[in-house]
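Hey, I'm writing a tutorial for new members on how sequence and structure tokens pair up, and I'd like a real worked example in the thread rather than a made-up one. If someone can provide the structure for the chain below, I'll link this post from the tutorial.
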Amino acid sequence: MRYRELGRSGMSVSEIGYGAWGIGASGWVGATEDESVRALHRAVDLGVNFIDTARGYGESERIVGRVVRERAGDEVLVATKVPPMNRIWPAPDGIEPAEAFPGAHIRESVETSLRVSGLDHFDVVQFHVWSDEWVGRGDWLQTVEELKKEGKIRLFGVSINDHQPDNALALVRSGVVDTVQVIYNIFDQAPADALLPACEEHGVGVIVRVALDEGGLTGRITAGTTFPEGDFRARYFRDDRPAQVERKVAAIVADLGIAPDEIAENALRFVLSSPAVSTVIPGMRTVRNVERNTALSDGRPLTADQLAVLAGHRWPRNFYG
């Protein structure tokens, strides 16, 4: 496993992190706690030292906390998220910071997460949505600073609204944020335009989510793909979207000259080819997924020619809508 600096924090994180939404049985159907625990332990065995969870991920915080406590001899960094008090995802324009992240709500959420996980602190606490309209307004920053002084959190970050990377530029430039979490993948390359350079300039760590487009960039989504009722992917990949994805992935495979089952590897290598990226957090619900993804941390980024090819495969769209 290779490691990268998490912005200016002084923390070193595995470039392959662990996205723990899928193990919480909230949104994703099919996870079992026994297999999730085995997968988390295997990830730590293979050098993963960064796990991303959230208050809103069902049982995820509890399961993550259990494994981290069982691995007390290993340094495992845990990031969690505070949901907006108004429960609106993503944050629309015009919402007051007091409606989404008042100080009392932030504190209550963090303390609940600590209690559920059994941990004594979180290495990163992130707001689960963000709007740059909130910079310099509200009491959220005061509460964040108090929680840092109390030792309950080490770093403060935000999870940027889906496909809105420029909606955190003012926050990054303000100097008060330590990390940002953002969607970045072969289809959504927009963060590379302004956000990633700004993060490099200001020493902000970058956590990349949805590097595999919720499974779209694995090669396993085809025109006939369906998902069980209750699985969020049934909505994400609804109507003719699987067929669209299949065509787009086939074009990438052809242009790169790779085998169809190599698309996920190349998708993760695309993300890691950016020096601004600190870690990428694919969801890994099985030991097999852990072993496959961690094997990519071998120091072999895509070539300039490959990146030039992939630059032509931007596909702006929002399947969350």
